[in-house]
TrEMBL record:
Keywords: Cell membrane, Membrane, Transmembrane, Transmembrane helix, Transport
Location(s) in or outside the cell: Cell membrane
Any matching Pfam family: BPD_transp_1
Transmembrane segment boundaries: 33-59, 93-114, 126-147, 187-207, 228-248, 285-310
Classification via InterPro entries: ABC_transporter_permease, MetI-like, MetI-like_sf
Main location class: membrane
SUPFAM superfamilies (alphabetical): MetI-like
CDD domains to which the protein is assigned, alphabetical: TM_PBP2
Domain ABC transmembrane type-1: 89-306
Topology with respect to the bilayer: Multi-pass membrane protein
Protein's name in the database: Sugar ABC transporter permease
Family: Belongs to the binding-protein-dependent transport system permease family.
Amino acid sequence: MAVSDTLRRSVSTTRDPAPDKPPSKYRQALPQYAAVSPFFILFAVFGAFPVLFSIYISFHSWDGIGQMKWVGLEQYSYLLTDPQFWTAISNTLIIWVLSTVPMLLLALVIANALHTATRFRSFYRIAYFIPNITSLVAVTMVFGSIFSNNFGLLNAFLQSIGLSKIEWLSQPWGIKIAIASIVTWRWVGYNAIIFLAGLQAISADIYEAAKVDGASPSQTFWRITVPLLRPVILFTAVTSTIGGLQIFTESRVLFGNTDNIGGPGGAGTTIVSYLYQSAFINNQFGYGAAIGWALFILIVLFSIINWRLIGGGDERVARRAVRAGSRSAGDRSTGETSSAGKEHADAH
């Protein structure tokens, strides 16, 4: 028995040790998670938390320092009856229309011209894109001198051709036109470059086929270029809508007075300007948060409208094209049949 026990112990000591367990998949992925964690930490602190906190304070009355007071939906119910808020919405929509519509049309024309240009193409691309990277404060100050009531360059030009000067920065429509001009000048080159990228993605064979069929340049532009640029137009329309509804710096720099942030009569007060005035001047942070979420709903609504008007009808357009193609094919076959019958009758 002693020999057998000794033999058993010696065999057990010479047996191979048990293999280590493989690390879990979470431990294997730990270095990768650690590498990307700074982004998520910064996003949680400076992105997600402010958004969630703005929702929270929109249901409270808070001056930023004292105790929060729960008010529920009173901020939003007052928002619906606040005349200054609706004035800010009206001003923002008017400025958005005055800037976005001519900006996109002009950008499309410029992109088409750059696409067909053969010389200095790179120079023109850089020249049109420079306004987008220029300091917005500096640009607004320059346009403020252009639209100045007494010594503005625009009034000097009007007087040089025999017209009377216009107090651009004192009249409601003059203020809106001045702000819209700044937005248009700054973003027209950016959208033109995007349109140019979309034009370069269109095959040249389509244009050559249209030219062989005898299509004029205007017909080629409206019946080929514009329909094929529908996704790009949708993108620029949505981004211009998002940016146009968040206009703030232009009116803030033009009218630096904190007592009347939107200029005479509040004609330049936008939604973001009213948010800034409510939260950081009047110290009504709860009401400012409610204005911010109302702006978010408005942006989503107009983005959906743009998608439905510009991009949502692709299937309908395709069905119309199929019906038109089948109809033209039917007419062509009918014409060929009638011509063949006429030739047969002439032969007899």
